[in-house]
Amino acid sequence: MANSLSLLPRHSLSFSLLCSISKPMASISLILTPPSSLPLSFHKLSTRCCEDTLGRPRVTRIASDNGLSFPEKSPLVTPATALPPRPRRIILVRHGQSEGNVDESVYTKVADPKIGLTEKGLVEAEECGKRIRELIERDGADDWKVYFYVSPYKRTLETLRGLGKAFEPSRIAGVREEPRLREQDFGNFQDREKMRFEKAVRIRYGRFFYRFPNGESAADVYDRITGFRETLRADIDIGRFQPPGERNPNMNLVIVSHGLTLRVFLMRWYKWTVEQFEGLNNFGNGSTVVMQTGYGGRYSLLVHHTPEELKEFGLTEEMLVDQNWQKFARPGELNYDWLTAGPSFFTHFVSEDNKDLS
């Protein structure tokens, strides 16, 4: 079968090709369509940002409350170029003394999430709240507020209530219960003697990687704390805890959690190595570690704490040097001299430096 196709000027006609296949021969038919009869969308292959696909102006809808319910979503309230002010502090609080801290046999008959505070622990929580308030008031600002993140365990919730007694309702910007801040899982109800054996094995195996049977390792806690950290950073970037329409620079975040969980949080935030983590000591019950903004806006432990306090906590000289860098650096900057930046993982640089000296 012979087919012929007449060439037509492109500017006068457009065509669509329809193929129909039949046995045993294939035939091709052309349907020529004048440009005037084609739909508008065929001619208009591109649209502008302010038009829809048919070239009509887009309608911009603004919420009836002018975006005050979600200020981060309204360019009229919060321009994309103006980030909310960072909270002045992130205050880490370990729960007060719990029944399990006094008597380990409690873990054999009471679920870990349901273990509460002792009378001493309740007092520790209230005293901790007073110290936090005194710390904040030393800034001299009148519009300061606190926002809490808390583990859902009974002892941390009771600690939260104790802390809250130091603040009027107008000072509390909000509270979020956060399951990722829970205690390391040790495996449901615990066998007292078996747990003592497991903790002894953990010392030999390594505190970070040892996983308790039916429970978690510190490495597992690290994974979920990484997720929480990203949530926290997003909350900070969009000012999630700020009251609608406000941009308060005197906000203070308080994280109420557990000893190992808080140490892992610090490890994740400051990118400490496993070896550095394993050299840290636990928080005392009802005690705090304060991350405070330095001169450039980054959070440093050396703004509030002394080097001696941080050494007692377990920070090495290299970690203190980095904290001093954090004290002056700005968000987004990298400390290329930091121990974990790269060169410290390689040994051949040392030999090359020695060659240069010789």
Characterize the structure shown:
- The protein has helices spanning 40-43, 99-102, 119-137, 154-164, 192-205, 218-238, 259-270, 274-278, 307-313, 317-328, 348-357, and strands at residues 14-21, 26-33, 89-94, 145-150, 172-177, 251-257, 288-293, 299-300.
- The protein has 358 residues and is an alpha/beta fold.
- The chain has a domain at 88-293: 3-Layer(aba) Sandwich (Rossmann fold).
- Strands 5-4-6-3-7-8 form a six-stranded mixed sheet. A two-stranded antiparallel sheet has the order 1-2.
- Helix 3 (119-137) packs across helix 4 (154-164) and helix 6 packs across helix 7 (259-270).
- The chain is globular.
- The chain starts with 13 loop residues before the first strand and ends with a helix.
- The model is unreliable at 1-33, 35-47 and 75-80 (pLDDT under 50).
Mean pLDDT: 82
Major β-sheet strand ordering: 5-4-6-3-7-8
Please, what is the CATH homologous superfamily of the domain at 88-293? Answer: Phosphoglycerate mutase-like
> Briefly, what CATH class of the domain at 88-293?
Alpha Beta
How big is the Rg? 31 Å
Q: What is the 3D shape?
A: globular
What is the CATH topology of the domain at 88-293? Rossmann fold
